[in-house]
Amino acid sequence: MLNAPQKYIEEFIHLLKMTISPDNIQRKECEARLNAIDKETKLNLLLQVLINEKGSDILEISSLMLRQAIYQCTDVKQFNEATLNTLKNTMPQLCLQQQDRNLRCKYVDIISSLATLCYEDDKNHWPEVNSFFYECLVRSNHDIGKEIGLRIIETAPCILGDFNDEFLGNIVKVITETMSANIQTHKLFVINSLKAFSSLFVDLSSKRSKKYINTPLQIILHVIKNSNDVDTVSKFLEELNVMIECKSRALKEYIVPIAETMVGLLASQHTAENIRIECMECLVSMAEHCKKSFKSAAKAYLPAIIDVFIRH
């Protein structure tokens, strides 16, 4: 990475700050000047800002702009090799060092965007990110590492294809344990682990997904049935619906417990209206995507399901 003169960096930081100016004309002028900077120079300047600056506002703007620059690339070969290597080496370090959770999540998203870009034609051009991810999620003993690992799975599940069954089993074990935590004291981790598993389940092949669904699905259904936190139940139902829509074949043998859970909530007078709607959406998804299997497996629940739909 080329170190730009301090005067140049200060001018660049000024332009970044002006992108959130309430003055519309001034903001557009600054955006135009930033857009005129060539890609490699801009990437280097953004990295220097992330490495050397301390202000949260400027770090947030820089991280968003850096991620956008990566996202706009369609091929990893569009990067200068030196710049690409600097990104690969720098971002994981910055991520672990960042104490501000909001900024750390943005740094993880940069890593995920770069990891996704580097994974093309079923080949990973950044294998080191797998080691970083696994170290954070499985081997680290601190919450920051776990949070980073869960976020990477949610936003860049493509990297999981490189892990064999033993390592993937360890990953799912951590996710499952986190999803089982006390919702009152660890709500954020519980929801993050749910999103991570949903992303993992959807991205893996159906054959591999089937291997790891049993225990996590039991936890998902347990939370949906028993939690008094409506917001959490809603998020669990939302992710379950995504899993049904994307990987119904891997869930065919679980039609009965899923239908039983949905019907139970729909039959209860204490179920919130938004939860009822999401339960019905799950049932509709199962019926649409599993068709004959659903009709056969959930036969005993069909009268109750029909009754619920008539009443609602």
TrEMBL record:
Q: Keywords in UniProt for this one?
A: Cytoplasm, Nucleus, Protein transport, Repeat, Transport
User: Which Pfam families does this entry report, sorted A to Z?
Assistant: TPR_IPO5 (PF25780)
- Coiled coil spans: none
What species is this protein from?
A: Henneguya salminicola
Superkingdom, taxonomy of origin: Eukaryota
Q: Where in the cell is it found?
A: Cytoplasm; Nucleus
The record's annotation in InterPro entries points to: ARM-like (IPR011989), ARM-type_fold (IPR016024), Importin_beta (IPR040122), TPR_IPO4/5 (IPR057672)
Biological-process GO terms, alphabetical: protein import into nucleus
Cellular component terms (Gene Ontology)? cytoplasm
Q: Where is the IPO4/5-like TPR repeats domain?
A: 99-258
Report the protein name in the record. Answer: Importin-5 (Trinotate prediction)
